[in-house]
Design goal:
Elements: H1 4-20, H2 24-42, H3 60-63, E1 72-77, E2 82-86, E3 89-92, E4 96-97, E5 100-105, E6 109-114, E7 117-122, H4 136-139
Antiparallel strand pairs: 1-2, 2-3, 4-5, 5-6, 6-7
Length: about 160
Amino acid sequence: MRDEGGGRSTLIWMKWISSLIPHPSSLGLIAAMLLFPAAVSAQGITIDPTRPPVGYLATGADTGEGDGGPVLQSVMISPTQRTAIINGALVTLGEKYGDAVLTRVTESEVVLRSGGVNRVLKLYPRVDKREDGQGAAAAMPPRGRGRDAGAATAGGASSR
């Protein structure tokens, strides 16, 4: 004789195993999901999720690209040499870039001299560097003084 409790556990095991096997109608969906990345890469579509949207970066007029002029992309300063990457070309201090000579390299800009004319290329053309004391922190009122002093405490409650 078979134990009735054992038959029940066998039935439960069989239901569990059958739940692991996908229904035939869902096999096509699973195959499509597995093959979709291969189809996308076969078409040569490459999407970089970290790339900023088009138009987010500086316009050509701000960077010098609009007039077809050189664009400073990077500077490298070491104790032995100073170099810059201009339009993808590595240029060392004193070397020629086109008809100009790289005459100065700082952390934020370089100078190209051509025919007695200096052309300054900035690493960040739309950023103006200010001296200490002239930035946004200097324009802020001191904390704890004036009419809004109570708002600076925790929760905005008055200190009275």
